[in-house]
């Protein structure tokens, strides 16, 4: 049967991270297996075909499309500089002459005697893929990219915006309930990843950008503040390519929600270390969650083995992820096997759990998330 | 037909007693077992498991095996061996006679279409792609209002699975379609899957331009030529293009998705894109029941709408609203519909900021379910708007050919109908079929009926049904090899009949008589319901029952025979019954004033017993 609960987000002080770094097109891999790389090292590169530019030669020379090939000064494949003659025509026994100049530096790709258009192409656009994390190259994907591996502390968020950045972690909240507001940011936050408790306010985000923080992590964000940050509303849960100068990750959801203790405590341990973070989120098959990776983190004490949850059992720490207990942390008390009727009259699999305030309540299993280790 | 992994071709002339079919969806793989019982094909059992196209499994057959294994456990029979599904059946009883599959995993089939004129060849190409089961990522045409460089950037950015290129009538000018081909060539598009592979392009335009299109695109792309989809202006020929789309779906998309090479060997029947198979199922349903059909499948990311109209049920259309769904794209419903449109279906107050945060949290945790009644009401309100918007989109594309000359007789000349009229005639609609979690799993079936009534606003007499476990994809692909089995299971096990709606078209004053419905129920009781404008009534008529009703609209209302004209018709019952919906049509009478509207919503909810009253009253009084 399909699991009737949401597998939790990973929060662990010690795990092995493997990152595939792949080119969009075939190209060259620049590193070797076993090589150590830093986040900004280029590990693979390729050239994307340059932008094409269509020139309506028939129109510009006022001639028929089929006459275009004979008026061309350049042939397909020829290099051409901006301002250089591309095509010339003359009429009335040479009395009227027209010359058409290239609008770009590039090459001639196509001369069409059917449409009268000429396609020029700008020089290739170099594309580089960086390592993103500090680690060791463990595998080469020939002409495509590499796989980089590192032991690391690892935290998954629930939602984020903004792309891959690196910076030093700075935990400014004293408790997981604290709110990150504008006063939490000072000029020395430049280039850092600022971590708060239950919420990052709209004013805080503005200030974070102002001081040049690389990233912000908090428990929650208000919907309207996210819209203000982006300048538009997000319709579909696919992010990571926003044109914003900061990466923002929330660990719990929308609204003010206390950051899970386990997450907050791990931030205490990695405070001051350099992390690679990415806000990219994609919620569909092949779910992608935002991440905070601290490569080569040395745990202070003994760390429990990094295991994937076996599922829900009495005692499992969980978070309720839907109303009426949204955001509340709890512990599973028992898991009755039979379906039960809930307030909506739906018959569903439920569990009973003890909330932080001591109440024992019934919640559909689909509405809880295991706090993974 | 190719051999399956057991080296067998299906021989459909021999007796088929058992059929196993899977649908590999983007999140769940569903398997159904059909067997012949007392001479009839029936659904025996179903199983499901998470789809395994993504990491860590990256093999679709792992999920298919898990789903089938559930069927093995439930039936105590063996269907799998190390090569896959055992077929044909062995003397020891293991295996099945036919195995087949559909798939929308890994993003389904994503296409871009291009044509010369937006409302002509490009629209025909769009219909061909949608009908074949594709998500159309963009439609490029000479007159789409974009500059050439913008079109080129868009083509480069999207990375579709394939492009369908059309344009020009056979023997017509080649210049414009050549221009589109040059644009595509300049963009050097790359396919979504398979780094280093050439992008498949199907050319279905003016046959005189084939030589030039080959010259421009032949080397850079994997170019296929099929018959023109608009050989003359007045004719649309979608078959050859759709067939080639299916071929390329198997060759390129399926062949490169993880594990599909194995799954393809399990069956001798080509794997179909899920929406293509559902479309086939809808067409079969229309022909079988001899009535026009509108079907909808509302998922987490997308909403598909299908319609089959026409004298011979030949006008089939499918649209997919790629960003209208109940989880992944739920925020887009909020964005497109607006908070006010969602809240107009909710009979209590909720702060906008709270509503927006709730919807966002549903987006990032898509598998959660409403625990409280207010959450259920809100979710069903959002679904009404997603369905409504998807239906508007559908109506804009399910139209006759545009821009063509019409032969008019004298009568029609006065009528002055335009080209490009919608095929959707809600008064002629015979059956409305809903599927997808929010409709199929609503705690009370009447909730599904009301969501469909509010979103589609069917007119006159319309049967309502939901696809119980969404087995339409499997039945669609089954119909290509065994139509009888497909039809029998569709009729007996696939649909849950909710009942029939009687909705007079017209509007009046609150309290004014709108319609009288008279009839004799199967238990001999006479019913006479006088329904006033603005009211709803429920007449009990159970599943499997029918009764002849006389429907008498008053002079401002029409139920199919014209204003004030009576209709006598056999009405089909269902798990909900017969809903007389006198809230008016054209326009639909939903009060604009908030207090009046909430009062009305509560009144309708009470009339049909839609939600538990005491619980709802608690939220309404807050």
Structure description:
The complex is a heterodimer of chains A (373) and B (622). Chain A is mostly beta strands and 373 residues long. Chain A is 10% helix and 40% strand. The two termini of chain A are 24 Å apart. Chain B is built from 19 helices and 24 strands. In chain B, helix 4 links the parallel strand 9 and strand 10 (200-203). The termini of chain B are far apart. By secondary structure, chain B is of the alpha/beta class. In chain B, the strands form five sheets. Chain B has an eight-stranded mixed beta sheet with strand order 15-14-13-16-17-18-24-21, with helices on both faces. In chain B, strands 3-2-1-6-12 form a five-stranded mixed beta sheet, sandwiched between helices. In chain B, strands 8-7-9-10-11 form a five-stranded parallel beta sheet, with helices on both faces. The longest helix of chain B is centred in the middle third of the chain and has 25 residues, at 373-397.
Write the layout of secondary structure elements.
The complex is a heterodimer of chains A (373) and B (622).
Chain A: E1 11-22, E2 28-29, E3 36-37, E4 42-48, E5 52-56, H1 57-60, H2 68-71, E6 79-80, E7 85-91, E8 96-101, E9 106-111, E10 117-121, E11 125-130, E12 135-141, E13 145-156, E14 159-161, E15 165-171, E16 179-180, E17 192-195, E18 199-200, H3 202-211, E19 215-221, H4 223-230, E20 247-254, H5 261-270, E21 274-278, E22 291-295, E23 317-320, E24 329-334, E25 340-341, E26 347-348, E27 350-355, E28 360-364, E29 368-370
Parallel strand pairs in A: 15-17, 16-18, 17-19, 19-20
Antiparallel strand pairs in A: 1-13, 2-4, 3-12, 4-11, 5-10, 6-9, 7-8, 9-10, 12-13, 13-22, 14-20, 15-21, 21-22, 23-24, 23-29, 24-27, 25-26, 27-28
Chain B: E1 18-24, E2 28-37, E3 40-50, H1 60-75, E4 80-81, E5 84-85, E6 98-103, E7 109-115, H2 121-131, E8 134-141, H3 148-158, E9 162-165, H4 175-187, E10 200-203, H5 210-217, E11 222-225, H6 239-256, H7 260-266, E12 272-273, H8 274-289, E13 292-298, E14 303-309, E15 315-321, H9 330-337, H10 339-343, H11 352-364, H12 373-397, H13 410-415, E16 429-435, H14 437-440, H15 445-456, E17 460-467, H16 472-479, H17 483-494, E18 495-503, E19 513-520, E20 526-532, E21 536-539, E22 546-553, E23 567-572, E24 577-581, H18 594-608, H19 613-620
Parallel strand pairs in B: 1-6, 6-12, 7-8, 7-9, 9-10, 10-11, 13-16, 16-17, 18-24
Antiparallel strand pairs in B: 1-2, 2-3, 4-5, 13-14, 14-15, 17-18, 19-20, 19-22, 21-24, 22-23
């Amino acid at each position: 049967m399909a699991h009737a609960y949401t597998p939790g987000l990973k929060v662990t002080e010690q795990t092995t991270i493997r990152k595939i770094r792949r080119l969009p097109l075939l190209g060259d891999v620049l590193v070797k297996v076993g090589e150590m790389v830093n986040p900004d090292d280029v590990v693979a590169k390729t050239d994307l075909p340059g932008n094409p530019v269509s020139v309506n030669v028939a129109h510009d020379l006022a001639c028929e499309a089929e006459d275009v090939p004979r008026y061309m000064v350049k042939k397909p494949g020829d290099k051409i500089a901006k301002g250089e003659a591309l095509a010339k025509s003359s009429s009335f026994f040479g009395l009227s002459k027209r010359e058409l100049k290239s609008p770009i530096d590039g090459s001639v790709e196509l001369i069409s005697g059917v449409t009268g258009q000429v396609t020029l192409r700008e020089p290739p656009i170099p594309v580089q893929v960086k390592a993103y994390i500090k680690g060791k190259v463990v595998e080469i994907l020939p002409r495509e990219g590499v796989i980089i591996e590192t032991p690391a502390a690892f935290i998954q968020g629930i939602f984020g915006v903004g792309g891959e950045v690196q910076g030093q972690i700075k935990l400014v909240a004293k408790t997981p309930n604290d709110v990150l507001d504008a006063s939490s940011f000072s000029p020395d936050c430049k280039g850092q990843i600022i971590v708060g408790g239950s919420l990052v306010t709209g004013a805080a985000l503005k200030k974070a950008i102002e001081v040049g923080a690389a990233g912000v992590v908090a428990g929650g964000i208000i919907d309207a503040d996210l819209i203000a940050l982006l300048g538009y509303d997000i319709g579909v849960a696919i992010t990571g390519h926003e044109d914003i100068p900061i990466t923002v990750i929330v660990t719990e959801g929308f609204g003010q929600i206390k950051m899970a203790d386990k997450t907050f405590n791990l931030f205490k341990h990695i405070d001051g270390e350099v992390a690679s973070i990415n806000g990219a989120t994609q919620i569909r098959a092949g779910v992608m969650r935002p991440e905070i990776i601290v490569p080569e983190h040395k745990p202070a004490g003994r760390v429990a083995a990094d295991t994937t949850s076996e599922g829900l059992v009495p005692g499992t720490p969980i978070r309720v992820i839907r109303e009426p207990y949204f955001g509340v942390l709890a512990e599973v008390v028992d898991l009755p096997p039979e379906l039960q009727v809930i307030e909506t009259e739906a018959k569903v699999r439920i569990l009973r759990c003890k909330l932080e305030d001591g109440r024992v309540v019934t919640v559909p299993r689909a509405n809880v998330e295991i706090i993974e280790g | 037909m190719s051999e399956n992994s057991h080296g067998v071709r299906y021989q459909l002339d021999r007796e088929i007693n058992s059929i196993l079919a899977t649908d590999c969806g983007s999140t769940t793989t569903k398997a159904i077992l059909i067997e012949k019982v007392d001479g009839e094909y029936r659904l025996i059992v179903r199983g499901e498991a998470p789809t395994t196209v993504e990491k860590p499994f990256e093999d679709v057959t792992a999920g298919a095996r898990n789903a089938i294994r559930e069927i093995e456990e439930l039936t105590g029979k063996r269907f799998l061996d190390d090569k896959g599904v055992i077929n044909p059946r062995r003397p020891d009883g293991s295996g099945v006679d036919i195995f087949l599959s559909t798939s929308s995993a890994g993003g389904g089939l994503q296409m871009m279409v291009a044509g010369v004129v937006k409302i002509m060849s490009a629209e025909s190409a769009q219909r061909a792609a949608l009908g074949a089961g594709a998500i159309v990522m963009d439609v490029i045409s000479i007159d789409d209002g974009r500059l050439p460089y913008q079109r080129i950037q868009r083509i480069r950015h999207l990375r579709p699975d394939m492009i369908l290129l059309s344009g020009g009538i056979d023997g017509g000018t080649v210049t414009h379609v050549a221009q589109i081909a040059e644009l595509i060539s300049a963009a050097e598009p790359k396919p979504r899957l398979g780094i280093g592979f050439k992008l498949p392009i199907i050319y279905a335009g003016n046959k005189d331009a084939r030589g030039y299109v080959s010259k421009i695109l032949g080397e850079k792309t994997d170019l296929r030529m099929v018959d023109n989809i608009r050989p003359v202006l007045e004719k649309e020929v979608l078959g050859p293009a759709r067939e080639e789309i299916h071929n390329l779906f198997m060759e390129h998309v399926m062949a490169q998705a993880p594990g599909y090479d194995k799954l393809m060997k399990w069956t001798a029947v080509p794997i179909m894109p899920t929406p293509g198979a559902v479309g086939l199922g809808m067409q079969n349903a229309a022909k079988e029941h001899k009535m026009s059909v509108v079907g909808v499948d509302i998922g987490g990311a997308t909403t598909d709408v299908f319609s089959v109209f026409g004298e011979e049920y030949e006008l089939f259309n499918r649209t997919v609203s790629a960003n209208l769904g109940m989880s992944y794209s739920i925020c887009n419903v909020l964005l497109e519909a607006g908070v006010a449109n969602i809240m107009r279906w909710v009979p209590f107050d909720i702060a906008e900021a709270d509503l927006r945060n709730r919807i966002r949290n549903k987006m990032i945790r898509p598998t959660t379910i409403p625990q409280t009644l207010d959450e259920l009401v809100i979710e069903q309100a959002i679904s009404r708007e997603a369905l409504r918007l998807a239906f508007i989109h559908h109506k804009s594309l399910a139209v006759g050919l545009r821009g063509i000359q019409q032969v008019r007789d004298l009568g029609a000349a006065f009528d002055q109908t335009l080209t490009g009229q919608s095929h959707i005639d809600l008064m002629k609609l015979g059956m409305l079929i809903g599927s997808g979690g929010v409709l199929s799993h609503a705690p009370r079936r009447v909730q599904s009926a009301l969501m469909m009534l509010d979103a589609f606003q069917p007119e006159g007499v319309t049967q309502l049904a939901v696809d119980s476990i969404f087995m339409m994809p499997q039945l669609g692909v089954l119909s290509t090899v065994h139509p009888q089995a497909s039809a029998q299971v569709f009729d007996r096990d696939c649909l849950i009949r909710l009942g029939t709606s009687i909705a007079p078209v017209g509007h009046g004053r609150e309290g004014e008589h709108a319609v009288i419905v008279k009839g004799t129920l199967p238990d001999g009781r006479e019913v006479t319901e006088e329904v006033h404008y603005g009211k709803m009534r429920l007449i009990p008529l159970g599943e499997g029952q029918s009764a002849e009703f006389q429907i008498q609209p008053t002079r401002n209302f029409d139920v199919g025979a014209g204003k004030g004209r009576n209709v006598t018709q056999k009405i089909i019952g269902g798990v909900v019954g017969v809903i007389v919906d006198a809230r008016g049509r054209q326009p639909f009478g939903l009060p604009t004033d908030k207090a009046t509207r909430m009062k009305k919503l509560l009144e309708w909810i009470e009339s049909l017993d839609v939600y538990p009253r005491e619980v709802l009253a608690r939220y309404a009084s807050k």
